[in-house]
């Protein structure tokens, strides 16, 4: 069940991320948390560390290295705080945290807030991304908001490099605190297959799909998943 439904969510998320630069965690993390909370966030981090490599293979020359440096600078302390959350916060509470982060990301992304891009805002986005990315596997929206007015190739390349480095850091921190079980790694490795298929589908569609329409559909799916996760937690703890 995890590999079938979770794999489908990763497939859809990979299509979105391949087209607009982010989305796999936003779509997949709530679904995987509902299906197998004990495997999260480790399983999605395997996907997060693999998918950016496909984007970078084609567009690495467009990376904004200065912005990336500020983002990683903020990401380090945020990741430490996210790892502490994983250790000391229960799975059920983390599930609600995932849902809350997704709904917040949906609201902010849907409103398309105009955020100036400078060292302070990028580092701040990296800090928030570090917390949510390590604790829940959803680290894209804060950085995506800062880069939303950049050109498509620069958005995809910069976010891809940031996501790759972030996922590596998150996996190291989760391993250090004993929250990266072998089963999570194996499940994540299995999810790489639908991830690759989703990325391949995103290529031909990228130039035809309107980013606004894709984003609207994804946000609707992500919001529905988050609401479902909230309902599930409420039912389980009645």
TrEMBL record:
Database matches in PANTHER family: MEMBRANE TRANSPORTER PROTEIN, TRANSMEMBRANE PROTEIN YFCA
Transmembrane region(s): 72-89, 95-113, 120-139, 159-177, 184-205, 217-235
Sequence similarity: Belongs to the 4-toluene sulfonate uptake permease (TSUP) (TC 2.A.102) family.
Protein name: Probable membrane transporter protein
Main location: membrane
Intracellular or extracellular location(s): Cell membrane
Membrane topology: Multi-pass membrane protein
One Pfam family recorded for the sequence: TauE
Keywords (A to Z) from UniProt: Cell membrane, Membrane, Transmembrane, Transmembrane helix, Transport
GO cellular component: plasma membrane
Keyword Ribosomal protein: no
Classification via InterPro entries: TM_pro_TauE-like, TSUP
């Amino acid at each position: 069940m995890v590999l079938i439904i979770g794999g489908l969510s990763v497939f859809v998320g990979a299509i979105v991320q391949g087209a607009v630069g982010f989305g796999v965690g936003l779509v997949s993390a709530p679904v995987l948390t509902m299906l197998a909370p004990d495997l999260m966030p480790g399983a999605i981090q395997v996907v997060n560390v693999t998918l950016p490599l496909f984007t970078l293979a084609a567009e690495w020359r467009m990376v904004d290295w200065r912005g990336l440096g500020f983002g990683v600078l903020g990401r380090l302390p945020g990741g430490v705080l996210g790892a502490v959350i994983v250790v000391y916060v229960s799975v059920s509470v983390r599930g609600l945290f995932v849902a809350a982060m997704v709904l917040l990301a949906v609201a902010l992304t849907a409103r398309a807030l105009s955020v100036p891009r400078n060292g302070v805002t990028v580092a701040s986005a990296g800090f928030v991304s570090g917390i949510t990315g390590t604790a829940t596997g959803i680290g894209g929206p804060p950085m995506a908001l800062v880069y939303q007015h950049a050109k498509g190739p620069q958005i995809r390349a910069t976010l891809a490099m940031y996501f790759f480095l972030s996922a590596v850091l998150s996996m190291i921190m989760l391993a250090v605190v004993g929250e990266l079980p072998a089963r999570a790694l194996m499940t994540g490795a299995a999810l790489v297959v639908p991830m690759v298929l989703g990325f391949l589908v995103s290529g031909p569609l990228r130039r035809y799909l309107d980013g606004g329409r894709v984003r609207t559909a994804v946000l609707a799916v992500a919001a529905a998943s988050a609401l479902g996760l909230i309902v599930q937690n409420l039912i389980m703890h009645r």
